Amino acid sequence: SPYVEGESDNVGSPESRLLSRGLPSSIHLLCRDLLKGELSIDEASTDLHYMIMEPSAFLRCSDMTPSNFSLIRSKLRGRDAEIRTMNDTFCKLTTTGVSEVMFVSGFSGSGKSRLVRTVVPHVAVAGGFAISKKFPQGIDDSLSLVLEAINDLIIMVSEDSTDEELYSIASELISSVGEVFLSVIHQVLPSIDLLFNVNVTSLASLGRGMPEQTSGLTNESISFILKTLITAISSRERPVLLHFDDIQWTNASSLSVMAELVSGGMDTSCIFLVLGYRDNEINQAVLNDLTACLRRSCVPVQHIHLVGIDEPYFIDLISNALCMLPRHCKSLSTAVYRKTKGNPFFAFQMP
Questions:
Q1: What's the pLDDT tens digit per position in 65-80?
Q2: Helix and strand tally (H, E) in the chain?
Q3: Contact assessment for residue 278 and residue 245, using Cβ atoms and an 8 Å cutoff
Q4: How far apart are CA 121 and CA 102, in angstroms?
Q5: Which residues of 289-323 are buried (b: 16+ CB within 10 A; e: fewer)?
Q6: How far apart are CA 160 and CA 127, in angstroms?
Q7: CB–CB of 252/141 below 8 Å?
Q8: pLDDT at 341
Q9: Reading across the β-sheet that carries 100-106, which strands appear in turn?
Q10: Taking Cα atoms as reference points, which of 108, 46, 124, 116 lies closest to residue 76?
Q11: Under a CB-based contact definition with an 8 Å cutoff, are residues 314 and 284 in contact?
Q12: Cα-based torsion angle of the residue sequence 218, 223, 229, 232 in order, rounded to the nearest 10 degrees
């Protein structure tokens, strides 16, 4: 034991010998402060609690690599109430079969996308599908990103569904629009052939003789096509999470198409549509029009607004990032908290 009395002093203090034996610095500091009488039992208990709950941060050598640092930053802290709201809303959707819309707003780096990702495991357990897209700034054709999302959804459904399920989806589509109109859908959503287990040529041949109509389709026509497909694919047993981030970069017509996907009430579509945006950059008039449109269609709408996280969670974040127990970096964490107003993203951007 390093604490045997009478051992030579030239080997260093008892607590420093812990470091020489390769033990974590958190253990060394805990023992040092206890031996000096500078730590109460309650404080020591708190330190031990952190070590047990976060061993990867506090029971390891301080060899922070970029990958480890990114892992710590990716953990969502201080958003328990928002996570419950997100997950409860999805669970309600799977029970009622009525599509829901959730707006998630906040400044850049507030954790909007990470909040949405907390519901993805629940979607998988429910037998559903999750698609996430982000509108880039300066996009000219924002509707193309919506179509890309639905195309990705079709591919996912075709890969994860049985032949019987695909047959049921295909039958419902044919019943709703007829075989000839499927060629029009194919012009907008090329991956639809995967639902019919046929190649592109044979599906397109259903409408042979019809003129190409892609460029001439109105937003109303595209909305009808997407709504028809979503209705055939989604259900309480197969819910769909559609997440579009940074909608401040899209336009009113694309938002209108998204809204149409969830309209119609029960037994039409079963979609959890999550729309994220930076509240200081959104066109408020367009957002108000979209919200009013959804409510006129009797679509349940909720709004989560993310601000800076509370100081205790912020201190935990810095503590984990530095692999230092909170009491050792509290003054630093408090200074950074005041500087960034609790924005986790800004905390890691400071020089």
A1: 444 444 455 567 888 9
A2: 17, 5
A3: no
A4: 18
A5: ebbebbeebebbbeebebebbeeebbbbbbbbbbb
A6: 10
A7: no
A8: 83
A9: 129-134, 240-245, 271-277, 100-106, 301-306
A10: 116
A11: no
A12: -140
